[in-house]
Structure formats: structure tokens, C-alpha cells
Amino acid sequence: MSEFIVSIDQGTTSTRCMIFNHRGEPIGVHQLEHKQYFPNPGWVEHDPVEIWENTQHVIHGAMRKAGISSESIAAIGVANQRETTVVWDRATGRPFHNALVWQDTRTDGLIAELGKEEGQDRFRERVGLPLATYFSGPKIAWILDNIDGVRTAAEEGRAIFGNIDTWLIWNLTGGISGGKHITDVTNASRTMLMNLETLSWDEQICEIMRVPPSLLPKICSSSEVYGHTKAGGPFGGGLRIAADLGDQQAAMVGQVCFEPGEAKNTYGTGCFMLLNTGEKVIHSKNGLLSTVCYQFGDEKPTYALEGSIAVTGALVQWLRDNLKLIDSAPEIENLANSVEDNGGIYFVPAFSGLYAPYWRPDARGAIVGMTRYINRGHIARAVLEATAYQTREVLDAMDADSGVALKSLKVDGGMVQNEILMQFQSDVLAVPVIRPKVAETTALGAAYAAGYAVGFWKDRDELRNNWEVDKTWYPDEESKAGIDSFAQWKKAVTRTFDWVE
Q1: pTM for the full model?
Q2: Which helix (H) or strand (E) holds 308?
Q3: Which of 79, 156, 160, 408 has minimal CB crowding within 10 Å?
């Protein structure tokens, strides 16, 4: 009997497999980190082969912990770090180069060239995105132009592209033996190559970027059966791969944000706030992205406004790995608790430039307000507060674009276990912040979309009924975080501009 849905959540720093029952409760989970490569300043890479190997290991681990066999799995869903770009040889299955991660800034020269005459919004009307190093299209162009033999392989039909979702689904469905070369509308909308209205590849933009359309995967909905696992793989043969969503859109589904005006914020390596705008594309005038939220089967697509912040949880990792101020990420809360406030310092983590709402690739990280008074605790607190302030800037832009004032914010991701951060977030936003019982909503959303595709869940009401509140933080009416401190933060951000010529 098919009792469970398997979700593969492939993120920026790790790969997780989670198994859910019909109530949306996790019954088994296994997770592995993968190596981060920084070959030059601003360059960030992953090894796609390591990610695929880790994916197989976490699948086996989760199934073992849950005590289930393949026979009890109804379907498999995939969620993935978006924009991270892989180009590989369809004949051998080997990548031509490491994956270029979404944070990577090596395409800044191409971005400047593309926007020289028509500006940053050259393609925004069609793709919903500004010209930025963030997106996949320019990364494909860089690989084609800089890695020996790749453009020739593309012209011969051997080289194919995918974000990590495409890479995993291709391998799960057979790889060199008939693997399905597909992506979904949410991931395609992050390439800068898909027309948001037609949901098809824009041939003119492909030509401008010199990306052959033959390289690109077939665009599908986020919730349908794309293919089946092959014998010899981690699941054995015959299981349905039935969902594919970018991680932030998967979290929207996991948070059951199905109505226009509903929003969520995911706190991971970066921070991503999405607002459901319904069946309409709303083009931002305030630095946000227009993107596909999800599409279930043959239903009309649902769109979203998104505020993307490059560095939030990654800043905690930096404090741990680069400065050695903490030994593990959870320790930051105790360290931040050792002081009453930030001591007057502000940390703007523009390591890869600034994303929403500024889109300033020339910015670089800065700590401002330093005095002899400052200690480790103040730095830890400023690191956490940076996430809350950046979220507030995105929320202000969403209010301006949508005209809808947020009444509360649903939150998820690894950092929502941090009590100091969640309370400060509520104070800065002046709205309640709500954490669900299942905080790993990215994995849950991929499971929901897969189960919806195969009838495991019949309708959206079944999914809504699964959602439960774990904890709510309410704003402190006496806090000045959203007024005085936020004004200082805005001042600090301006100090990071124009650092890179």
C-alpha cells in the first residue's frame, strides 16, 4: 500500500531526504552537507557529482530511519536551490565543470555588457527579473564561453543544461539510459530565459545571451508525473517522480499560501520572502522579482512577488567557519544573549553585492559603528539583526508594490529555531511572526505537490488542514527596533555602495 511521500530537498549547503505521511508529518529524515568551493573572490561552486551521490545516500538513510520500503512510496517530489547552474554531457553523464552557485558573481562583466545601453531592466517586462549575476542564463553563457569544448558539445547536441532539479531528475529517471531532461515553471522562471506570460523559452533572449535553446530542458508544471525511477537507482524501479519546485516556491506550497496576499519568509543560506499575487504577473517598481509561484498540472499558473536576500544563515556559517567565533551555528543565540543590544554596530553582509531591493553588485560587506566597547556578543547580535533588517526592507517594497499591508508573517527554515531572531523580527516588522509545527516547509511543499499530482491528497483543503501553528511571536510595543534602529541600518547599507568599480 502506498502510504508515504518522499521529498528530496537539495539546498545550498546540504541535501536532505524527508518522508511524510498523509498528515504531513515527517517520519524519516537524513541529511548530508556538501563541500563549498571558492576558487576566486566572488566565485562559488559545487560538485554536481557529490550532490548526486549525497542524494542517493540521504534517500537510503531516510528510508532506513523510517523503516519503510519502496512499495509503500506513492510518489517522489524534488525541491532545489534555484539558479545554481550545471552543464553536462548527456552521453557520459559527466558535468563539464563544477556547478556555478546562485551566489556566484563571475558573470558581472556580461551583466554590465547586457545592460550598457538599455539598463538593468532590459528583459524585466518579459522575464520579471533585473539583469543580475544571480540568475542561470548568464551562468550558462559563461560556461559555454570559458570552458573548453562546451560550446562545441552544445552545437553537437551533447551538452545539456539544468538547475539542480533537472540534474537530479535526469539521474533519478535513468541518466544516460533515457533520463528525463525537464524542469518546472518555477525553476525556469529563475533563468532569465523564460517568458513569464507564455511559460516558454524566449528565443530572442537566448540568442542575445548566445545560449542555444537545444541546451535547455522541457518546461513542465510543478506537479505532474515526469517519469519513473529506474532499476539500480536508490529507490529501485517504477516509482513516480511527480513534483519539481524551486526551494522558495516549495516553501510557499508547504506553508499552504494558496490565496493572493498570503506570504512567507524562509530563513536559510539566504532569506526569501514571497507574496502570492494570484494568476496575475505584478511587475515590481521597488526592486522585487516577479516569478512563478507554482503550477499544479493543467491549472493556470500562480505568480508571486519575491524579495531575495543573498546572505542570512550564510553569515552565521561565516562567523563559525571563517572567524571561528562559534563552534556550531546554534551557539550564536547564547553568544548574542550575552549582551543587551548590538552596542551600536550594524553588519551589512553584502558578500555577493546586495540583492533585493537594491540590486547593487558593486556593494561589499561592512561592519559599521565599531568602538572599543564592542565584543563577540555584539557581533553575534548584529549578525542576527542583519537578517531581520533585510527582511523589513523587502517587506516595505512588497507593501509598496502590492498595496496590501501584511498582517502577519509565516516563517520557516533553519533559523526560525532562534528565539532572539524571531522576536527581533516581529519587533522590526511590527507584526506577529508565526512558525508552523513542521518548519521544514520546503521539503513538505515538494511532498505536497507530488502527492497532489498522484491523488494522495485530493485537494488544497486537505493540505490546509495539515497546517498547524507551533509558536507565534508578537511585537514588543516599547521596542524602537522598527524605527530608530532600522533608520541606522538604512544608513549602514549606504556605506557598502560603490566598493567595487
Answers
A1: 0.84
A2: strand 302-309
A3: 156
Tell me how far CA of residue 37 lies from CA of 98, 99, 172, 217, 396, in angstroms: 9, 10, 25, 26, 34
Can you tell me the distance from the alpha carbon of 267 to that of 489, in angstroms, rounded to the nearest whole number?
19
Mean pLDDT for 466-494 is 90
The DSSP annotation for 87-152 comes to EEETTT--BSSPEEPTT--TTHHHHHHHTTTT-TTTTHHHHS--S-TTSHHHHHHHHHHHSTTHHH
224: part of which helix (H) or strand (E)? strand 223-228
State the DSSP string of 69-100. Answer: -GGGEEEEEEEE-SS-EEEEETTT--BSSPEE
Q: Assess whether pLDDT exceeds 60 at residue 445.
A: yes
Beta bridge partners of 309: 271
Residue whose C-alpha cell is 539544468: 162
CA distances from 400 to 274, 356, 466 (A): 14, 14, 32
Q: Are 150 and 87 in contact (CB under 8 A)?
A: yes
Position with higher pLDDT, 238 vs 143: 143
The mean pLDDT of 41-50, rounded to a whole number, is: 94
Say what percent of the chain tops pLDDT 90: 69
What is the predicted pLDDT for the residue at 1? 56
